[in-house]
Write a structure and sequence with these properties.
The protein has 194 residues and is α+β, with helices and mostly antiparallel strands. The protein is built from 6 helices and 7 strands; from the N terminus they run H-H-E-H-E-E-H-H-E-E-H-E-E. It comes from Hydromonas duriensis.
Length: 194
């Protein structure tokens, strides 16, 4: 992936409408939260392949720039509307040993698998506002069009990321970045979740 052109990643909560903040700051499972806000939840895998590490991910993953990684990109869809574009990366040599489920996910959610594993801990969230010139923004927009969603993203979208670490393997890290697509802010809890 090419260079990133977003605001710096930061730990403090971004300046976003208070009624929308929970989508960025909730520490529970985003997958479960989305399921509570729609009748039909779908994970659409966009791609899963080997790639090279992005500059903005090197420090957090403790890997050098240009290192080969395994990446997975998905759209999270609520009632036929894409609401999140998720990008996950981990070191190629760690995927099979420390994250054996990763290659078998298909169109299933990664989040529920990670939350169910007591040997996995998650770091605090970092936040940024990604602009239209950013590589990840462009990948998300292309994914939407490729999967026939007529969604044109605004010039900036909020994103969050965190690191998952396997407690038995100190150097085993998986980074999950979630881009909040515009429709996520229109979701309301369904009657089944109230």
């Amino acid at each position: 992936m090419s260079s990133s052109l977003h605001s710096p990643w930061q730990r403090h909560v971004p300046q976003i409408q208070r009624k929308h903040q929970h989508w960025l700051t909730d520490t529970g499972s985003l997958t479960q939260k989305l399921k509570n806000h729609c009748e039909q939840f779908v994970v659409q895998r966009v791609r899963q392949n080997r790639a090279f590490l992005n500059l903005s991910e090197t420090k957090s993953l403790c890997l050098p720039l240009g290192r080969r990684i395994l990446q997975r990109q998905v759209l999270l869809i609520c009632d036929d509307s894409p609401v999140v574009f998720a990008h996950t990366v981990t070191a190629l040599e760690r995927a099979g040993r420390d994250w054996p489920f990763f290659n078998q996910l298909g169109n299933r959610a990664l989040g529920l698998t990670l939350f169910a594993n007591p040997l996995v801990c998650r770091s605090d969230f970092e936040y940024t506002r990604i602009c239209a010139q950013d590589a990840l923004y462009q990948i998300a927009q292309t994914a939407l069009h490729t999967h026939h969603f007529k969604v044109n993203l605004p010039r900036h979208i909020w994103a969050r990321r965190c690191l998952f670490q396997h407690v038995r393997h100190q150097n085993s890290r998986m980074m999950v970045t979630e881009l909040m697509l515009p429709e996520i802010y229109q979701l309301e809890k369904t009657s089944k979740a109230r």
